[in-house]
Specification:
The complex is a heterodimer of chains A (278) and B (255). Chain A is built from 13 helices and no strands. Chain A is mostly helical. In chain A, helix 4 crosses helix 12, helix 5 crosses helix 8 and helix 10 runs antiparallel to helix 13. Helices cover 41% and strands 22% of the residues of chain B. Classes of the chains: A mainly alpha (278), B alpha/beta (255). Chain B: InterPro entries: ModA (IPR005950), ModA/WtpA (IPR050682), TonB_box_CS (IPR010916). Chain B: Keywords: Metal-binding, Molybdenum, Signal.
C-alpha cells in the first residue's frame, strides 16, 4: 500500500551467492491460507442450481439490489476521496499536537465491528440523537431509512482505507520534493497541486479499489443504521442475508453477483492497483 | 543458525493453527449428557427460564441453547448442524427440516404467538390502531416477508385490508423492537411475547382478533443428535405443565 515494492535488506549480499528461495516450512501454511480464501468461494459455485440461475440473477430483487449497491458504493468512494484525501495530506504533512491521536481515531472504523459503527451513527444522526434531532426540528430531515444513510454508513467504514493508503504513500515519499519546490518559491497550494498531488496518484489506485470493495461489501453498519427496504436501503449484502432466510438459491445467486463485481474490480479495473504498483 | 530464524516462528504458527483446529474438533464432540437445543430467537427469554427449571429437575444434564432466526436454524440443520431439539417459530421451517429427514420425533405444537403493534412510550405519531401504521408521516418498521414474523405481518395486512408502507423490513423481530425502543420508528409490528419482554420500553396497541394471524411453534427431536431419550425428556418438559406456565407468562398461547 506504500506504493513501493518490498525490498529485503540483505538482498544484495545474498544474491551474489544464490537465489533467495522460499523456506520450505512456509509452503504448507501458505497453501492452507490460499485454500481458506479460495475454497469457500468455490463451494458457493458448487451450491448453484444452473437451471434456475438466470432467472434468479435477473430477478427484480437482485437487480434492484445490484443497482443500489453500485450507486451507493461509487458515491461513498467519491465522498471518501473528497474528504479522505485532504485528511491524508493533513495527517502526513501537518504538525500539530495530537496527530497521533487523530491517526488512531481514523483507524477506529477498521477496528470496530461494523454493527457498532451503525449503532454509533444511529445514536448521533437518528431522530433522537443530538445531531439527528437538530436536523429533524430545523429542516425536517431524517437520515435513517434513506439511501443517504447507506452512503454514510459505507463511507464511515470504507474511508479509513483511503486515508491510510494515501497517508502511507505520502510518508514513504518523504517531503524532499516539496521542500525543494518551496525553496524555488512555490507556495503551499502550488506545491500541493504540482508536487504532492502527482505523488499521490499511484497510491490512489490501490486505495480506491480497497475503499470501493469495502463499501460494496458493507453490511453491519448499513442494516443497523439505514434499515433494509428494497430499492432504498437493501444493498446486495443485505439482500443476500434476507433471501437466505427463505430462499437459499436466490441468496446464492445474489452472492454470485457480488463475487462477480468483486472479481471485476480486482482483475479488470486495476490489475496492478491492488499490489500497490499503480 | 541464521537461516533457521524464520523456520521456528512459522513452525510455531503451524502448530498453533493445528492445535486450534484440533481444539474445535474436541469441543464439538458430544458429551454424554450434553443436550443442544436449537430454538427460534423469539423463544430466548422463555426457553432460558424453562432451561433453568429443567436443569434443576435434571442436574446431570448440560443444556446448551442456540437462539437464532428459525430460517437460519433450519438451514443449519439441513446442512448437518448438530442439535438434539429444534423449536421453530413457524411450521414452514419445521416442514423444511422434516422434508430433509432430520426429524426423529414430532413435530408437536407447543405454543402460539400473535402480532401486536408497539410504539415508543411517548407515542410520537399518535398510533391508536393497526390502520394508523399506514398513515403518511408515520414511520413503521416490520419484519421482511422472508422471516416468520414478516409472513404473519403480511397475513394481518391481508385480513385487515390495510396496506403498509414500512420504512424498513428487518430480518429479525428483535431488530424491529430495537428500532421502536430506540425511538427511531413511530411503530413496529412484533410478537406479543417481544412486547411483554420489552415491558415499559414500549406501548402496546393490540391488533383486533379478526385480523390476527396465529403463528404455531412446533418442537421436535432431531436425528443424529444421539441423545434421543434426553431430547424427548426436554420436549416433554416444555409441553408439560411447568413449561406451559412459563410460556404463558411470557405472552405465548399454549394449545
Amino acid at each position: 500500500m506504500t506504493g513501493r515494492p518490498f525490498r529485503p535488506v540483505r538482498r544484495r549480499k545474498q544474491s551474489s551467492e544464490r537465489v533467495v528461495g522460499v523456506p520450505a516450512p512456509l509452503w504448507l501454511p501458505a497453501s492452507c491460507a490460499l485454500g481458506l480464501i479460495v475454497l469457500p468461494v468455490l463451494g458457493l459455485f458448487a451450491r448453484v442450481d444452473p437451471a434456475g440461475l438466470p432467472a434468479l440473477l435477473t430477478s427484480p430483487a437482485a437487480l434492484s439490489a445490484l443497482e443500489l449497491s453500485l450507486r451507493t458504493a461509487v458515491t461513498a468512494t467519491l465522498l471518501s476521496v473528497l474528504l479522505g484525501a485532504p485528511l491524508a495530506v493533513v495527517l502526513a504533512r501537518a504538525r500539530f499536537p495530537g496527530t497521533r491521536l487523530v491517526r488512531g481515531a481514523v483507524l477506529l472504523p477498521l477496528v470496530l465491528p461494523p454493527v457498532v459503527g451503525g449503532l454509533a451513527l444511529l445514536y448521533l444522526l437518528g431522530r433522537t440523537g443530538p445531531v439527528g434531532s437538530l436536523l429533524d426540528e430545523r429542516f425536517g430531515l431524517t437520515i435513517p431509512y434513506t439511501t443517504t444513510a447507506v452512503v454514510l454508513a459505507q463511507t464511515f467504514v470504507a474511508m479509513p482505507f483511503l486515508v491510510m493508503g494515501l497517508e502511507g504513500a505520502l510518508r514513504a515519499a518523504g517531503t524532499e520534493y516539496e521542500r525543494i519546490a518551496a525553496t524555488l518559491g512555490a507556495g503551499p497550494w502550488l506545491t500541493f497541486r504540482r508536487v504532492t498531488l502527482p505523488m499521490l496518484l499511484p497510491a490512489l489506485g490501490s486505495s480506491l479499489v480497497l475503499t470501493f470493495a469495502r463499501a460494496l461489501g458493507e453490511f453491519g453498519a448499513t442494516i443497523t443504521f439505514a434499515g433494509s427496504l428494497r430499492g432504498t436501503t437493501r444493498t446486495l449484502p443485505l439482500a443476500v442475508y434476507t433471501e437466505a432466510q427463505a430462499d437459499v438459491d436466490a441468496a446464492v445467486a445474489m452472492s454470485l453477483l457480488l463475487v462477480g463485481v468483486a472479481l471485476l474490480v480486482i482483475l479488470v479495473a486495476r490489475p496492478g492497483g491492488v499490489q500497490g504498483r499503480g | 543458525m541464521r537461516k533457521f530464524r524464520g523456520v521456528v516462528p512459522s513452525l510455531a504458527l503451524l502448530l498453533a493453527l493445528l492445535s486450534a483446529v484440533a481444539g474445535c474438533g474436541v469441543s464439538a464432540e458430544e458429551d454424554d449428557d450434553t443436550l443442544t437445543v436449537l430454538a427460534a430467537a423469539s423463544l430466548t427469554e422463555s426457553f432460558r427460564e424453562i432451561g433453568d427449571r429443567f436443569a434443576t429437575a435434571n442436574p446431570e444434564v448440560d443444556l446448551r441453547f442456540n437462539f437464532q432466526g428459525s430460517s437460519m436454524l433450519a438451514e443449519q440443520i439441513r446442512q448437518g448442524g448438530a442439535g438434539d431439539v429444534f423449536a421453530s417459530a413457524n411450521t414452514g421451517m419445521m416442514d423444511k427440516v422434516r422434508e430433509a429427514g432430520a426429524v426423529a420425533h414430532g413435530p408437536d405444537t407447543f405454543a402460539t404467538n400473535r402480532l401486536t403493534v408497539v410504539t415508543p412510550p411517548d407515542d410520537p405519531a399518535g398510533i391508536d390502531s393497526f390502520a394508523d401504521l399506514a398513515r403518511p408521516g408515520a414511520s413503521a418498521v416490520v419484519c421482511a416477508p422472508q422471516v416468520p414474523c414478516g409472513s404473519a405481518a403480511e397475513g394481518v395486512e391481508r385480513n385487515s385490508g390495510v396496506r403498509l408502507r414500512p420504512v424498513s423490513e428487518e430480518d429479525d423481530v428483535k431488530d424491529v423492537l430495537h428500532k421502536v425502543t430506540s425511538g427511531e420508528a413511530d411503530a413496529g409490528l412484533v410478537y406479543v411475547t417481544d412486547a411483554v419482554a420489552a415491558g415499559d420500553e414500549v406501548r402496546r396497541v393490540d391488533v383486533p382478533d379478526a385480523d390476527q394471524v396465529t403463528n404455531e411453534y412446533p418442537i421436535a427431536t432431531l436425528d443424529g443428535g444421539g441423545h434421543q431419550r434426553l431430547a424427548q425428556r426436554f420436549t416433554d418438559f416444555v409441553r408439560g405443565e411447568e413449561g406451559r406456565e412459563v410460556l404463558r407468562r411470557h405472552g405465548f398461547g399454549t394449545p
